Structures are given as C-alpha cells and as structure tokens.
Amino acid sequence: MEQSGSLESLTGPVAPSKPLTSTPEEIVRVAEQWRVYYEKVFIGNGQYLIDHSAYTFVIDREGQYSGLFPPGTPAERMMQVVAPLLP
After folding, report:
1. 3-class DSSP state for residue 26?
2. Do 45 and 25 lie in a common domain?
3. d(CA 32, CA 36)
C-alpha cells in the first residue's frame, strides 16, 4: 500500500466532503439542532482530542435530510437510502 502524508491522496476517488465550519456559536447551534454530540477531551501537555458522534447524515442535493447511518450500518441498507438520491 502506498503511503502518503496527504489525506487527499487517500480519498481522491471518493466524492468530496463538505465539513461544517463556522463561528463557535453557530457550531453549537447547529450541533444542538442536529443532536450531534461533541466534546474537547484534554489528554495532557496542552493537547486534546475531539470526541464526537459517529453517525453519517445523508443530505440530498437540495440540502434536505434523507437518512442517518449509525456505526455498523450494513452496506445494503446504505444503498437502499442512497440509491434513490443518485442521478
């Protein structure tokens, strides 16, 4: 397996993601609206990790909620939800 320091080189064939970013206040508001859990966990030496929900939200092309996949969701179930959204 080829090793690279670039995450983009590992995800090239995958559709681009659109991570959520905004002001801290807006992130709190949206996280509460979507019932997403997150917490900064300090691990020492000034370093921290972010513990967070591991759900995958499915949003259609119009920005509407179309499904939610918890960890361990079978690929067959994902296809049932995603296939009708594809062009």
Report:
1. helix
2. yes
3. 6
